[in-house]
Amino acid sequence: MLNETFAAEATAAFNKTPAQGPYTLAMSNSAIWVPLPNISITYTTITDAIRLLANASSPSALHLPPAYDGDESLIAGYRAQLLALADLYANPRSPSLESAFATGNSVAAVLLHPLSRGTARLNLTHPFEPPVLDYRSASNPIDMAVHLAHTRYLRRMMHTDTLKGLGAFEDGPGEALQTDEELVAWIRQNTVQSYMHPCCTAAMLPRDKGGVVGPDLRVHGAKGLRVVDMSVLPVLPAAHLSWTAYAVGEKAADIIIRQWSKGKDSD
């Protein structure tokens, strides 16, 4: 940013036809992925709360949408996901936060492993229209605890001498907001429902845990039908879904080729 030679070269490249260089990046050109143990020294409070929630005796304590009511398989699958997510949050090599930023732009706090669950339903009145989505973002209060940890971490980062030397300043939440309650209210007001990472509506899980497809990507109980897209992920990964989609596609192609070569894919 402060290197005049670099700025001049970047400007010259942008003015070419077609435009080239770093100024052609419409969104962010830098990002960090940070694990929760590196974000908060009290991260075990969050992981312990997740494990406690997973073992709650009453399904009503899980903060799930009404569609889960009475469906033991969906509830069992969610409990299994909670235990897996607790391990991810405790893992110092598994990011919980993605923060992308660009020159002259603000940082964003992306929650990579939300616990809240919503629904994606067909529009029964107009079935060819987009599905009816109920995100239910932050319906699980533990998500807000993680959001709060992420926000305080980015606030500390913005106040480092390095970033302040580059002209960084805090525009929001703003210095006037300091308490947990004030910051949580600000986060709820400014949260974006989805950050281009839609997934997980046809999860690869056993049928008795609410799964839709198995490891071979076949839909449970259906012949000749596979799902090969980001809906098969049980939980959101700590990665961009574009390259994850390529990996799933490559794996699906390998599975199909192997089974066809053995004559086992005719059904």
UniProtKB/TrEMBL annotation:
A matching Pfam family: GMC_oxred_C
Top-rank taxon, per record: Eukaryota
Glucose-methanol-choline oxidoreductase C-terminal domain residues: 114-249
InterPro entries documented for this protein: FAD/NAD-bd_sf, GMC_OxRdtase, GMC_OxRtase_C
GO biological process, one term: secondary metabolite biosynthetic process
A molecular function (GO) term: flavin adenine dinucleotide binding
Gene3D superfamilies tied to this protein: Glucose Oxidase, domain 3
Family indicated by similarity: Belongs to the GMC oxidoreductase family.
Protein name per Swiss-Prot or TrEMBL: Glucose-methanol-choline oxidoreductase C-terminal domain-containing protein
